[in-house]
Amino acid sequence: MMQEGGAKFEAIIYEKKENVAWITLNRPEVLNAQNDTLRTELIKAFEEARDDNELHMIVLTGAGDRAFSAGADISEFPSRVLMDVIKQRKGTKRASDLIREIPKPVIAMVNGLALGGGCELAMACDIIIAAENAQFGQPEISVGIIPGAGGTQILPRLVGEKKAKELIFTGDFISAEEALRLGLVNKVVPREKLKEAVDELITKLKSKSPVILQFAKLAVNKSLETPLSVGLAAEADLSAMCFGTEDQKEGARAFLEKRKPQYKGK
């Protein structure tokens, strides 16, 4: 539906606006369910955004007013067999993996249902801003599977073991307000204020150094993957690396001179 850098997409929209990549899941007629085409295109879009040095952050959202993404396209399930799934996933990074690894802030703008793979995509993002009508859940149990893109691993880290097991075992949905209370999302706003809230966050992040934001994301991610001692060592290294950047010098000078810094991302 949108071409960028010569690439044409059928199931997503990819746009670049003022150093921000906007990626929109674009199958609103099926609540932005993720079929093979959408998943493949989503990976290509995130790889493009990762490699484009003009882009400092990424926003992921869904088309329409009902869903961010209702998860996998169940219509593809009856024909799937074990080896198909293994071949599909073996040696291939999923979009949720890429989101975590890309050293740029990724914001989820959740405009409705975020279920199953949709919930997992949102959880992979660094910050989640949700509309009041949004709902979250891992209902895979209801179609005979378990979450397969991080739900059993990331959800407990965000909401705790007991609540995560309850949601995964029952397949129940939770409201945006409950997701906020549990620590699953960062902010909940009226639907008509959703884009405005995301734009405000973008403006705030643009005032920071893009290269230092990358170090910050890498450091926080390390805390979720390693013992404390290893994480602290990684933090020390990344913090030291900041002093090798032009932006660190500019930030310090601007503070001392009581002016706004002019970062170059170097």
Provide a short characterization of the protein structure:
The protein is α/β, with parallel strands linked by helices.
Map the helices and strands.
Blueprint: E1 2-4, E2 7-9, E3 12-17, E4 20-25, H1 36-51, E5 57-62, E6 67-69, H2 82-89, H3 95-101, E7 106-110, E8 113-115, H4 117-124, E9 127-131, E10 135-137, H5 151-159, H6 161-170, E11 173-175, H7 176-182, E12 187-189, H8 194-206, H9 210-223, H10 228-242, H11 246-256
Parallel strand pairs: 4-5, 5-7, 6-8, 7-9, 8-10, 9-12
Antiparallel strand pairs: 1-2, 3-4, 10-11
Helix pairs in contact: 3-4, 5-6, 9-10
Count of β-strands? 12
**In CATH, what is the class of the largest domain?**
Alpha Beta
Low-confidence stretches: 1-6
**Mean pLDDT level:** 91
Figure out the total of helices.
Answer: 11
Order of adjacent strands in the largest pleated sheet: 3-4-5-7-9-12
Largest beta-sheet characterization = 6 strands, mixed
Proportion of strand residues = 15-25%
H-E order? EEEEHEEHHEEHEEHHEHEHHHH
- Supply Rg: 19 Å
The structural class is alpha/beta
Query: How helical, in percent, are the residues?
Result: 40-55%
Distance from N terminus to C terminus (CA atoms, Å) equals: 34 Å
User: What is the CATH topology assignment of the largest domain?
Assistant: 2-enoyl-CoA Hydratase, Chain A, domain 1
How would you name the CATH homologous superfamily of the largest domain?
A: 2-enoyl-CoA Hydratase, Chain A, domain 1
Q: Into how many domains do the coordinates divide? A: 2
Global outline: globular
